[in-house]
Amino acid sequence: MSTRQKHDPKADGLKGAHLDFAHEMGYGDYLELDTLLSAQNLRSDKHDEMLFIIQHQTSELWIRLLLHELTAARDCIRRDELDPSFKMLARVSRVMDQLVSAWTVLSTLTPSEYTEFRGVLGRSSGFQSHQYRVLEFLLGNKNPVLARPHAHHPVRNAEVMAALEAPSIYDESLRLVARRGFAIDAAVTGRDWREPYRANASVLEAWRQIYAAPKAHWDLYQLAEKLVDIEDSFRQWRYRHVTTVQRIIGFKQGTGGTSGVGYLQSVLQLELFPELWQVRTYL
Known about the structure:
283 residues; Methane Monooxygenase Hydroxylase, Chain G, domain 1; mainly alpha; 0% strand; 13 helices
């Protein structure tokens, strides 16, 4: 009888696969998975706390990517390099779609399940996310009061304050529009970046001209639509946040001390790029 091994076709796909990583970097090393997967430290013995932690940790990772892309896009706009910024801004919208979908997962947490471990959160709340605050400031929703929760942490505070004091992506877009020859009020292009942006008639008129002749101003027109895409996705993200919180805790006060759903509903009314929405009425 032959001692020859029987051919296993299932093994063909493994030919050439490197299987020894004793002295080389592997997948887990590159992604530092030992660190990442050891960061889910439950503070209760309740099964559903794992969902709550992972939901928020993954959201923070996506926000980290948003900041990476938006900061780079803002720098491109500042240098009048719009083509590479469009890819970055498109990616931002797709990342926000992921964040919207994540609320669907958290909504599987029932009020009874959340109540079992809510007490271990203390005063911690997503309201205190320094990355989210940087994101809002980068998008133009400036409010110095919202920087205060980070004053105790030098590194986080420095990131938040830097975002507060720098032009937002919309500020840089309007400065670009002005450089292209459109009559933008100096009060817009030279304003105090720490203050919330206020809609301006000269900005509305500039966007009206751009939208009225898109072929003549194609890159500015495309920039405007990329910004609208982002705000559209951002609104959906906020709306799903409100509905998920209401579904789980109703109108209870938030763990961080805000009014909870009431506070979240109030921020739904904010417009990041007001003239880009207003201009539709005047075309």
